User: Which sequence fits this backbone?
């Protein structure tokens, strides 16, 4: 599975961005999709994940109530709606996929990774 993350950019604190993760050449059917982020000088951290059916969703505590993960109407996209953005949300955001029904929160549980998209939140 080849993944393409997009939608990053520069936004002021309090603003919103919508990230998308697209699969090329196939659908996400049967795959759990996760979003992770890595800020400069920090380790990669879990943001959110959704099971292939969409019935199971997880969020990091730091983004609960602000971010929403969802599957697109097409079978090969997953979106991450990010609202009320804070400077601490600044990072490169990666989407990842694994053939599973469980929305894992550990990066080691994902086999496929996209290239990342940069989100910068200015204060």
Assistant:
């Amino acid at each position: 599975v080849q993944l393409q993350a997009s939608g990053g950019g520069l936004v002021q604190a309090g603003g919103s961005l919508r990230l998308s993760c697209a699969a090329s050449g196939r659908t996400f059917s049967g795959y759990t999709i996760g979003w992770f982020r890595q800020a400069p000088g920090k380790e990669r951290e879990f943001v959110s994940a959704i099971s292939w059916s969409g019935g199971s969703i997880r969020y990091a505590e730091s983004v609960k109530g602000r971010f929403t993960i969802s599957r697109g109407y097409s079978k090969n996209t997953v979106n991450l709606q990010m609202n009320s953005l804070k400077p601490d949300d600044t990072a490169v955001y990666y989407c990842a996929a694994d053939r599973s029904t469980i929305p894992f929160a550990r990066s080691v549980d994902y086999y496929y990774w996209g290239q990342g998209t940069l989100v910068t939140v200015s204060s």
Q: What stands out?
A: The CA atoms of residues 35 and 95 lie 5 Å apart. The two ends are 37 Å apart (CA to CA).
